[in-house]
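Work Package 3 committed the consortium to producing structural models of liganded targets before the mid-term review. Because experimental data for this complex are still outstanding, the team generated a predictive model from sequence and the ligand definition alone, so that downstream docking and mutagenesis planning could proceed in parallel. The input record is reproduced below exactly as it was submitted to the modelling pipeline, together with the SMILES string for adenosine-5'-triphosphate.
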Amino acid sequence: MNKIPILYLNSILIASIQTELTDEEVLSFQSELLTKNNNLLTKGVIIDVSTLDVIDSYMAKVLSDLTTMVKLQGSAFLLCGVKPAVSSTLVDMGMMLTKIDTFQSLEKAFNFLTSNDRKYQ
Amino acid sequence: MDKYCLNEIDSVPIKCTQDIVISRQKGRELARKSGFSVSEQTRFATAISEITRNVLTYATEGDCHLFENNLDGYHMVIAQIVDQGPGIDNPKLAMSDGYSTGHGLGLGLPGAKRLVHELNIDSTPGKTIVEIIIKRRVYG
Amino acid sequence: MKTYEKIKTLIHENRDNIIIHWVTAVTAGSAIDKSRETDDCSVLLDLIFKCVELGYEKIDKSEQYLLLEKELHSFASFRALNNFTPTQTANYLLELKRTVYTIVSETAREVLADEFIDFNNFIDDIAVLTFQIFSDAREEIIASQAYALEHDTPIVKISRSILLMPLMGIIDTARAQKIIESLLDAVVENQAETAILDMTAVATFDTHVANNILKTIVAAKMVGTKVILSGISPNAAMTIVKLGVDLSQVETFNTLENAISHAHERDAVLLGEAS
Ligand SMILES: Nc1ncnc2c1ncn2[C@@H]1O[C@H](COP(=O)(O)OP(=O)(O)OP(=O)(O)O)[C@@H](O)[C@H]1O
Ligand SMILES: [Mg+2]
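The resulting structure, written out as tokens with the ligand in place, is given here.
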């Protein structure tokens, strides 16, 4: 059972991961997100990780897989709120999430999706 | 690995993925209490996460022991992750980037090593200990 | 055993006179505060007098001498800290010698030559000591400045959403880690859209430095900030190519000025987009 609330607003799916998830919980979140996205035909999906203290290689892999899957569904995938310490840890581990579009805050990610001009990524 | 007298602070049995979360939270908390920076806490917790997950993947269960130690002007926080599984055939190979006998990216062990000051593997069939250490100079 | 009766009496009787002349000599042609110098000169002269009173042979390791030494320490360190020149400092005690000599030759020709020579030698010794303390203190200050330069990496806020980090000196692994951490903290705290790493003052550029720069750029991207580079020297450019480091994904600018104006343009577009 997925315990992360997934909100729908302005054709955008927003999920804020507020608690540390077990591997199984991450997987059920992933599948619920993909199902919802498929049903709602969104413009994009935003995942907010601003309260996560640890993103290990497992979580990183899930996020990077999600990017590919959501893009395959024809929606944009945006990540926001990666903490500084989490980011440098991921880089040192060798997990560079460079193909994910990242934003500092949910607000910036949301503005990006709702505005028309996407010149700078 | 038992070269010094260690002060055991906590111990978490690793049986399911929830225990990965508990282990890394406790490791992080210990690092925080011991005066390590936020970034060091994060690195230590992430390393614990990688190594405890290996226990569930390659053995069936194990334990994560957390210690504190003072030696030669350093304050250290240590995690020893122990399992009774098949053991790591070739620890040197296991430590190289991209090597995996499972379906992983093979980044767990070498990645964890880059996050801490020391990573030691002591593995035989039936008993594997992976030890990680972070240290901080203490003055006076 | 030798006594210093005559020179003792001379210093004692002419104390105020000596101080006035001495202060005039050391402050001549400079904007140094006279009242401060008068205090310094009085304290030093009284301590020197106590030593002379004791007799030259007994000065070494005496309580009087230790007190004088302590005073010279704070005197010389103060001068080193406050950018007095080495010449000013070296001349200070030598001026006392000249002052006393003038008074001897004008008013007290009966002071024995060898009595005055011993006094002279004593002042020379403490002058050397003072200069040694002064130069040690200076070296310490220089070393700590170099340390600060090497270890503190300032971050400058150019505008609401642009940060600048000028990299300086030698970037080793420990420092690189600090640079990444403080830059990431700063961009998140300031919600900066662009961070400029200026490389103009980077001493040596090798694979390690290049990899750390790449790491910084990737880590910043993951928190949502774009990092651009400026001021890559010809030498660094050659090294980058020779080492085969791939910086092709990284935006670089020849001067800091160009980097800043690019960051501003980017800002304008992002702002336009949000509204
Ligand atoms: N506790 C263990 N018991 C037995 N073998 C292990 C253990 N831990 C690691 N190994 C071996 O070492 C290899 C490398 O481990 P590592 O964690 O680096 O990569 P991975 O688990 O295969 O992939 P990733 O962690 O990136 O998902 C594993 O594939 C496995 O063969
Ligand atoms: Mg692993």
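Reviewers should note the following from the model. The beta strands of chain C are 156-159, 162-169, 194-202, 226-230, 252-253. These observations will guide the Year 2 experiments.
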